[in-house]
Write a structure and sequence with these properties.
Elements (H helix, E strand, L loop, with lengths): L6 E5 L2 H12 L4 E5 L16 E5 L1 E2 L4 E2 L14 E4 L16 E5 L11 E5 L1 H9 L13 E2 L2 E2 L14 H16 L3 H20 L4 E3 L11 E6 L2 H4 L3 H17 L16 E4 L6 H26 L1
Parallel strand pairs: 1-2, 1-3, 3-6, 6-7
Antiparallel strand pairs: 4-5, 7-8, 9-10, 11-12, 12-13
Helix pairs in contact: 4-7, 6-7
């Protein structure tokens, strides 16, 4: 779809940066709007005449798009929303999204590696009116004889997925319906993140990586240690402290894969999607406090 118009790419964490890399490799006429971990790129710079690419929910920074007001309703370009971990947990203004991609592995907890794509009529019109001057691998071809290949969206597979994984997805959807549907899924993710928000208020040594509370992800909660005893350490020592913090939690069996993403600032990254219970998040907080106290005591012992 890309290449017919200039492209505005908004990136503020590692997966958004992958879109930037793609654009460079495809030699697109792209303008990159980026921000460091914890901040949101300047969305107001989106051009009405350009195509737009953005990651709705930045899982490696814990920063999400707070709304879709910055996308012009009368835009000329198409928007591509990488909503991998936002679907089912965060509101989406579908009128502002022409291509929305997601994976059911995230908020519904299904098997990984299954990418889904939702196209608007505008996206279909682009596919049928524009042919890029570059070769496309079979798995990326969405048209046949100049028209969108609707069979792809009606169950005809390009590469055969695991049907067991598909049944797992259907079970997850039935569960979602049984607890109240989309609104209930949103509420569960919000409740989980609010546990951490309340805990951070009363815990002086921890804070969200997201600078603006309005942009905090409600699924991928990224936390940073702000205690001077840690922040005064070298960058390598801070990274080692965060790694040990996650390791202690894993050794106790209370949290797994809780370390921040390898390219992100050192800290913790806790999944708070809809399949998680708020009571489990609340139970984790004292364990994090214990792990922090244990490691700080070790620092003070070494210093003495």
């Amino acid at each position: 779809m890309l290449g017919a118009r200039p492209v505005d790419i908004f990136a503020w964490e590692s997966f958004g940066e992958e879109w930037v890399t793609d654009a460079k490799q495809l030699k697109l006429d792209a303008t990159v709007h980026s921000a460091g971990y914890g901040s949101l790129a300047k969305l107001e710079l989106a051009r009405r005449e350009a195509d737009i690419i953005f990651t709705q929910n930045g899982t490696t920074s814990g920063v999400r798009v707070p709304n879709f007001d910055w996308i012009a309703a009368d835009r000329e370009g198409i928007t591509i929303n990488d909503a991998t971990s936002a679907v089912f947990a965060q509101p989406i203004d579908w009128a502002k999204c022409d291509v929305t991609t997601f994976s059911w592995q995230k908020v519904l907890g299904g098997e990984a590696a299954h990418g889904m794509m939702i196209l608007s009529p505008r996206a279909i019109a682009r596919l049928e009116s524009y042919t890029p001057d570059r070769p496309l691998p079979k798995i990326f071809r969405l048209t046949k004889k100049g028209k969108v290949d609707l069979e792809i969206f009606e169950g005809s597979t390009i590469n055969t997925p695991s049907l067991l994984a598909t049944e797992d997805y259907l079970d997850a959807l039935k569960w979602a319906e049984s607890i109240g549907g989309l609104a209930a899924l949103h509420a569960r993710a919000d409740a989980n993140t609010n546990v951490f928000a309340d805990w951070a208020v009363r815990t002086p040594w921890i804070d969200f990586l997201a600078v603006d509370p309005a942009t905090r992800s409600n699924t991928s909660v990224c936390l940073k240690v702000v205690d001077p005893r840690v922040t005064s350490l070298s960058a390598d020592a801070q990274a080692e402290f965060a790694k040990k913090l996650a390791s202690l939690l894993e050794k106790e069996g209370v949290a797994f894969d809780a370390a921040s993403y390898r390219a992100a600032p050192p800290g913790l990254r806790i999944w708070c999607g809809a399949t998680v219970d708020a009571s489990d998040v609340a139970a984790l907080c004292p364990w994090i406090e214990w792990a922090f106290a244990t490691l700080v005591a070790e620092l003070e012992t070494k210093a003495a």
